[in-house]
Design a protein that fits this description.
Blueprint (H helix, E strand, L loop, with lengths): L11 H28 L5 E6 L10 E5 L2 E7 L4 E4 L12 E3 L4 E3 L6 E2 L5 E3 L8 E7 L2 E10 L6 H4 L3 E4 L12 E4 L2
Antiparallel strand pairs: 1-10, 2-3, 3-4, 5-6, 6-7, 7-8, 9-10, 11-12
Length: 182
């Protein structure tokens, strides 16, 4: 008994084409998957603790979590999480000076109020803040979302001009900034 069907054998070149196109398809899928993996943002939250740990105070608290530093201030009306770096160029960390009740930059001598508003020095804006959320009573800081200050606070900045001595770097001296009202 013979049927009308014949089994055609695969020629070697057809097998190689199938393997080649299969390999290309797998490589294309891997490239697309890698691009999607690396193009999606990585959101990292740093948990600072509960809101009860930061009672209403007139002093910000320096907190270190996962190798990152934060200044947390609970004014009673709002919670503020400051970025403790005034400038990215030098990398100095802003410090809270309790005797003066203000933030100070030890490298450039800029000064800010407890609310992060610029007072004095060469800084061009108020202190930046981190965005945060409260989930199940825990403060989670969104470290990728920095709220950049637009500029100097208008009530504090009024009519203040800061200049440095133009010859200070030529002489090798440290530059001191003098702020005056015109």
């Amino acid at each position: 008994m013979q049927s009308g069907y014949q089994i055609k054998s695969i020629v070697r070149i057809e097998a190689l084409r199938a393997v080649w196109f299969g390999s290309l398809l797998m490589a294309l899928i891997a490239i697309v998957a890698a691009l999607l993996w690396y193009s999606t943002p990585r959101f990292s939250y740093v948990i600072l603790g509960t809101l009860a740990e930061y009672s209403s105070s007139d002093t910000p608290i320096l907190v270190e979590r996962d190798g990152q530093f934060f200044y947390v201030l609970n004014t009673g009306d709002e919670l503020i999480v400051f970025v403790p770096k005034a400038t990215d160029l030098i990398g100095c960390r802003t410090i809270w000076t309790p005797s003066n009740a203000r933030f100070e930059d030890p490298c450039l001598a800029s000064k800010w109020t407890i609310m992060g508003h610029w007072i004095d020095g060469p800084a061009t804006r108020d202190l930046d803040r981190y965005s945060y959320r409260i989930v199940n009573g825990q403060i989670e800081v969104e470290t990728w979302r920095v709220i950049r200050a637009d500029g100097r606070h208008p009530e504090v900045q009024q009519n203040v001009i800061c200049r440095s001595d133009p010859n200070c770097k030529k002489n090798g001296d440290d530059c001191n900034y003098t702020c005056t009202e015109p």
